[in-house]
Write a structure and sequence with these properties.
This protein is α+β, with helices and mostly antiparallel strands and 111 residues long. It has three helices and five strands, in the order αβββααββ.
Length: 111
């Protein structure tokens, strides 16, 4: 995924959406893709957490155990989330749920 740039936001979003649309879960297969991007926010939700990236308006979901494990492993990066001067990079393993949502099943962060 290209670095977030307001001047190219539409083309970045189109490329990324095409990439994500390639994840199609069937009864026989649940493919995964690696997503590398810049983290915008991680907010609690009813069923875990909502993860947002700067490059897209698409929403990703992560379970509490996935976030808790990542928080313990990447403390310095988690501490900087929300700091406007920090750039936090996320590497996430993503799959699509039966309902069509994008679910993060593993993730790593780096400043």
């Amino acid at each position: 995924m290209r670095r977030h740039d307001e001047a190219n936001a539409e083309s970045i979003a189109a490329e990324f959406n095409a990439f994500l649309d390639g994840i199609k879960t069937t009864p026989q297969d649940s493919p995964h893709r690696l997503v590398l991007g810049e983290l915008r926010a991680v907010t609690p939700s009813r069923y875990g957490f909502v993860v947002n990236l700067r490059q897209t308006k698409r929403t990703f979901f992560a379970s509490a155990p996935v976030v808790e494990l990542s928080t313990a492993s990447f403390r310095s990066a988690w501490a900087m989330i929300g700091n406007a001067s920090a750039r936090v990079v996320i590497l996430a393993v993503v799959e699509r749920t039966r309902d069509g949502n994008l679910r993060i099943i593993d993730l790593a962060l780096q400043l």
